[in-house]
Each structure stands twice: as C-alpha cells, then as structure tokens.
Amino acid sequence: MTLASFMRALMVLMAVTLAGPALAQQPPPGGRPPPTQTAAQKVTIELVVVHATNANTTVDPKISPDIIKHLKFLNYTSFSHLADYNASLALKQETTFSIVGGRRVKVQLLNRSSTEAKIRVRMYNGQGKLLDTTVSIHRNRSFIVAGPKHAGGVLILPVTATY
Amino acid sequence: MHGMALEQLLNRIRDGIADDAELERAKELLASDARFPDELRDALDDEPVLSAPALLSCLGVEDGFGAMLAGAIDAEAHVSVADSVIDALFPDEQQPPVAEAVVASAGDIEITAKVLEDLALEMVDVPIVQAVEAHAGQIEIVAQVLAKVGMADAGLPIAQAVESAAGRVDLVQPVLTALGLDDVLAPVADAVRAQAGVVDVVAPVMAAATAEASTAWVSAMLDGELDLAGRAAAAEQMRGNREATAMMTAFASIGRELREAVAEQAGEVDSIWAAVAPEIGIADPEEVPGWDGALLAEAVRAEAGETDVIHGVMSRVMGPAIVAPPAQIPEPANRGWQIPAAALAAAAVLAVLVNVPSLQGTDVPDNVPEVTTFASATEITVNELSYAENVTVQVFQAEGEEGPLVIWLDEETSL
User: Fold this and answer.
1) DSSP helix, strand, coil percent of chain B (3-state; round to 5)
2) What is the Cα gyration radius of chain B?
3) pLDDT tens across B28-58, in order?
4) pLDDT score for B256
C-alpha cells in the first residue's frame, strides 16, 4: 500500500467512523463506545403558561381540565391560557422558552432512564437567574413551577416530560 | 451474494485489474449496499484504486491496516475525559454542577477530523509511519485543574478523581500498538499537538469545583472528618462568619431530616455517638467547634418583643431557606436545598427510601400520554434547588399525595 492509498483509506475510514454506528467496528478493549443520540432517547418537554388572577371567574377552555382541577387549591378564580411550548431534547441538550413578562425558562435534559428523566429547570428575568432546580420525574408526568407575578396575578407553568 | 460480488470487484479494482464494466458494476453495488453509509456511495467515483482498499476495510477484509486501523481510530477518535472523571467522582450517576461542567467543557475530545486535515496537508511526502505518529499528542488537564482549583494537596475526591481519571490521554500509543508499530518513532506529532495539545476544562470545572470546595470544609467539620489541625482552622474560620454559620445550620437541618426519614423507615436506633465521643477525647458530644452561639443570641435579641419570633429568627440565621408558607400552600414536600453536596446526599437517601422500589422493573414501551398526569409524591424528587437572594421558594405537594408537586417562587420577598 502506498502512502497515498493509505491516506485515502484513512480518510474513508474516518468518514465511516464519524458517519455513525452503521459500520462501526466492535469497540476496542478499554475504549468506551462513542455516545449516540437517537430519537428514541429524546425526551419531549412541554411547558404550559397559565395566568391566574382574581379579575373574574372565567376559566380558559384551552387549559386542560387535568391541570385546572389541580389549581383549585390556589386563591385565584380566573385562569387564562397564554402559551404552549415544547421541545424534544437529547441527553445534555437544553432549550430556552421565552415566556411573558420578559422571563425565560431554560430546560436541560440531564439524564433519562426507562422510568424517569432528570431535568434541570432555570428561570430568568431581566435581572438574572431566579430559580435553578434539578428534578427527577417519572416519564410522562408533570409538575408545576409557579409564582412569578404577572398582570395582577401569577404565572403557573406546568412542565411535562414525555417519552 | 451481493456483498461477495462487491468484495470481489473491489479486490480487482484495488489490484488495478478491473475493467470499466467491472468498475461501473462496483459503483452500482456500492450505491445500494446497506453495509455502507450514504457518505460513501460515491467513494469509487474519484481515484477508485485508492478507495477500494478502504472500502474493503469497511467490509472487514484485512488488507494490512484496514480493520486494525479502523478499530484504533474508532477507539481514539472519542476520548471521553468527562465520562471518566464523572465515573470516578460519582459512581451512582449523580451529576452535580462539577460533573456538568466537565461534560459541558470536555465532552468528547474529537480531534480526528483536524488531525486528518493536517495529515492531508503535511503528510504527502513522508513515510506511512509518520502519518501514524501524527496521532501523537497528550492531553494534560490534571495539572491545570488541580493548580487552579488549589486542591492538589487537599486529598479531596475531585482532586483524586481528576488525577486518576483524567490524567493523561495518550493518543499515540494505542494507535501504534494496534498497528504493530510500537517501536517506530517519527517527529511529526506537532501537527496533532497543535490541535489537541491542551484541552481547557479548567475554568468551568474550577467554577463549579471551587463553589463546592468552599462549602466542603463546613460539611467536613460538621461530619467530624477533619483532623485536629483542620478542626482548629475551621473553627477559627467559622467564628463570626455569618454565612458559614448559616451553612452549618442548613447542614444540620438536612442531617436532622435524614435522621428523621431513616427513623421513620427503620425505627429509632440508639445513638452510639454519645458513647463513642468520650472514648475519642471529645468531652461534649453535642459541641460543634466554632459554632457562634453569640450570633444566634444576637438574632434572638434583634427579634425580641415580637409576638412571633420564630420566623424572624430563623430567617435572619438561615436567610431564605426557611420562610413562613402562605396560608393556602400545603405542607412543603422538600426543604433545605442550598448545599449541593448535602442535597445530593439527601437526594440519594430519599431515592433509597422513597423512589427506588417504584422504579424497579423492565423497560416500558415509549408512549406519550394524551392527558396531563401530575407526578405523585413517589414519582418525583427535587434533587437540587437554588434561587436568587430576593426570591423565596417553596416546594410542596398540592392536595395530598395525589396532587402535583409545585415549586412556588415569590419574587417580592426580601429578608
């Protein structure tokens, strides 16, 4: 084999190596197989923005009854649906949702197993970071981040991790 | 059958004996052979004599270097320093800020593409062994990390882990060994070193590590892990240090909560510390060296005269960690989040006590629910929680065990 052919072989082999696992050789001793991300490993994060006030007694029909029934314990009488956000996150990937009031919610997928996902949720306002929390939650389950003041009421943000 | 035909054609192309028809047939087969990725479909269009050996290697046909070289490159193309460090630091897959910083910064050190670029430019007229040697390069990060974090002599877990796991990532020896060229040396490593010589994970690791290290001595002191000199130094540092005192209060609170959780699960266990302490020369088992009682007294005096002094006192001593919950908010589900190490310990214990049994079982098929189902108390754990100084955060479970976990933040609170 000449140098030129070796170089060509090297380039082609690298193309194979970097192209993905389809032609990957068996992992050598001591080597950790390169991490791969597939759609099956992603977690979909959904963020709903609900505005709760005492301005009236209306409940926005766009809000899921599954959410509404769990908000009755709050001292608010009116719930308006402001926005829905969702993003499909691979491991270590993060996304930022810009919500009302100049706030941003950054969500990162830290880990996932067959039963639960570990996600990091950070909330910012114009002055900086308000909240930074890491939650391990069962798949297809939701929790709530709430409390930020907005237009005479508060924001309620149900967060759901599905996969 | 299909694959065998292609291999035969590739062999003939490699040997320079294939005619035009055979070359075209090989291209046709290559275009549809499922063993090859799309990126290689046109590999025979340009310099087929040179590409054929590589394609044969992809098919596992040994041609002197192919399979071994592919294996070696595959091994060395992804040097995951981060995973090694994290494995050494956190064997139970815990990923506190230090681990995240390592992952974010080091990740996979992929140098191969850049190496190949340099090789293509510089290795045209040099022997093959020099091409292999171009993979040389040692990625040294431990010295930088330890020096900057200042924990080289501290004996802390992160220092030991970085030293043992990250150490030196030697890229050349495995490649040479795989190729059977251990004894061949050549001077062309600079091209690679220029690309891969130093991986700077220091700054972000340090940011997380120093933050953790700044609290480590408080935890170590409370846990009795310091030697006599260390205890004396820590006690001196603690004296009059309001922040450290509050931190120790938080630690103690977490310890109490853990003990309560353990006791709830396992029943009361007779304390052995009261008996052990005198045996090791500690007269008062309850003494915490350096604990500034005057600080607590001062806080009480500052609040004296109020009908309800508890909330005020605790707020002053512990900052926003303890606040009076709003009337409409149920019992908090989690408390005391401020110290990462302790919070991790708490999370680990909670996982054992609460979550693990429900997490056992086989993999569940993927499905996306059509309704919103809030996690019950046993289906969610808040591992870490921090918040701005002017924010109060409450974590609670609404409507009993069936209600959602709510992380409620109040931006207007000022303590």
Assistant:
1) 55, 10, 35
2) 31
3) 898 888 877 777 888 888 788 878 877 877 7
4) 62
Q: Return phi, psi of residue B48, to 5°.
A: -60, -35
Tell me: ipTM over 0.90.
no
Q: What is the pLDDT of residues B148-191, one digit of tens each?
A: 444 444 444 444 444 444 444 444 444 445 444 444 333 333 44
| Three-state DSSP string of chain A | CCHHHHHHHHHHHHHHHHHCHHHCCCCCCCCCCCCCCCHHHCEEEEEEEEEEECCCCCECCCCCHHHHCCCCCCCCCEEEEEEEEEEEECCCCEEEEEEHHHEEEEEEEEEECCCEEEEEEEEEECCEEEEEEEEEEECCEEEEEEEEEECCEEEEEEEEEEC
**Alpha-carbon Rg for chain A in angstroms:** 23
> How close B39 gets to chain A, by Cα (Å)?
7
How far is it, in rounded angstroms, from Cα B404 to Cα B11?
65
Test B380 with A24 for CB contact under 8 angstroms: no
A43 min Cα distance to partner chain B (Å): 10
Which residues are CB-contacts of A129 (< 8 A; sequence separation ≥ 6)?
A: A122, A123, B388
In the numeric block, which tokens belong to residue A93? 């990937």
Find out whether A118 and A135 touch, Cβ atoms under 8 Å.
yes
How high is the mean pLDDT of chain B?
57
CB contact under 8 A, A131 and B39: no
Determine which helix (DSSP H) or strand (DSSP E) holds B204, and give its type and residue range: helix B202-222
Phi and psi at residue A160, in whole multiples of 5°?
-125, 135
Which residues lie across from B80 on neighbouring strands?
Answer: B108
Task: Determine, for residues A115 and B39 on separate chains, whether the beta-carbon distance falls below 8 Å.
Answer: no
Identify which of B111, B213, B197 has the alpha carbon closest to the alpha carbon of residue B162: B213
Closest Cα partner for A157 from A92, A104, A118?
Answer: A104
- pTM metric for this prediction: 0.36
Residue type at A161?
A
pLDDT of residue A144: 94
